[in-house]
Amino acid sequence: MTMSTRPADDGGLEITIRLTAAEAEAMQNVPQLMAEAFDSHLWALGMLRTRINSRDPGSPAPVQGDWATALRDVDRLRSRLDAIRTAAIRAFMASDGNAERLAGVLRTDPAEARALWAEMRERPAGDWERWASGGS
Predict the structure, then answer these.
(1) Any idea where the domains of the chain sit in the sequence?
(2) Prediction pTM value
C-alpha cells in the first residue's frame, strides 16, 4: 500500500491511495467505504477551519444539516478505526510484544499499557474487531 499527494490543477491537493492486488482482494469493498468516510473527515475538518461548505455550489457557510452529515460519517469510521487499533494491539502483543514496547508505540506509560493489555485479554474480540481481522 502506498499513498501519494500532488498539487491539483485548481490549487487544491489530490490524494491517491494505492493497494496491492493482495490487499485489494483481502479487503473487497472496504477501501471504498473507508475512503468515503475519510473524505467526510477531511470535509468536516475543512468546514471547521474555513467555515465554508465546499460541496455546495457557491461554497456557502455550513448549516446544521451539513454538520449532521459530517458527524454521521465521522462516527461511521470511528468504530472501524477503534477495531483496527484493537486488532493491531492484539497482533502486536501476539508477535512477542510486551507492555513496555506497547507503551512506547502508543506514547503512554507502561502501567497504562499493561492495564490496557490486561483488559483486552479478559474480553474476546468483538464484531468490529473480527471484521478488522478479516473474520465475520
Answers:
(1) 2-132
(2) 0.75
